[in-house]
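ugh ok fine here u go
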Amino acid sequence: MQFKFTSRNLFQYFLQGILVLAPVSITVYIVYQLFSWLDRLIPVYINLSGDPQKPFYLPGLGFVLVMAGILLVGWISSFFVVGRLLSFFDHALERTPGVKTIYSFVKDFSEAFAGKKRKFQKAVLVSVLQPDVWQVGFVTNEDLEQFGMQEYVTVYVPNSYAVAGTLYFVKSDRIKLLKEVAAPDALKFAISGGVVEVEE
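structure:
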């Protein structure tokens, strides 16, 4: 009987250890992989031995150079003349056969999350499958006249534990605006399967 009690405690301690270590370990792993990937974009080698055949790789400097380069491009692009040039190249890429499909998709997707045209700002509850079943979604377009659906809006519903999702055309009366829940919190809540607590 004592052995069973001890085994149960050990199992509980083991699960508790996993619950403590898993988020930290996964976060550290993802950050490390992202850091390593960015660092390998511009690998920096320094010759300390005097032998040109044996350069010394300096980890971290490539990451710093990549970050500095991104900040420099963002700063330069804020100037009017440079902005006009970027708009010219942007227009050219959007009209280049083959390239425009990839470029337009990546550009629109990026701007939907972080650009000036951010679409994932209006979090809602949407009823699609059943009248009394609701899902967390985001209104991405409220003007569907081009589809001949003036009374409808598009709602993007993210999948749990995935970056994919489903787009629905629903009538406006099938959604409830989440006024007291920020869009990033709603997105985390939906992707986590509802296990993340929504901050007040």
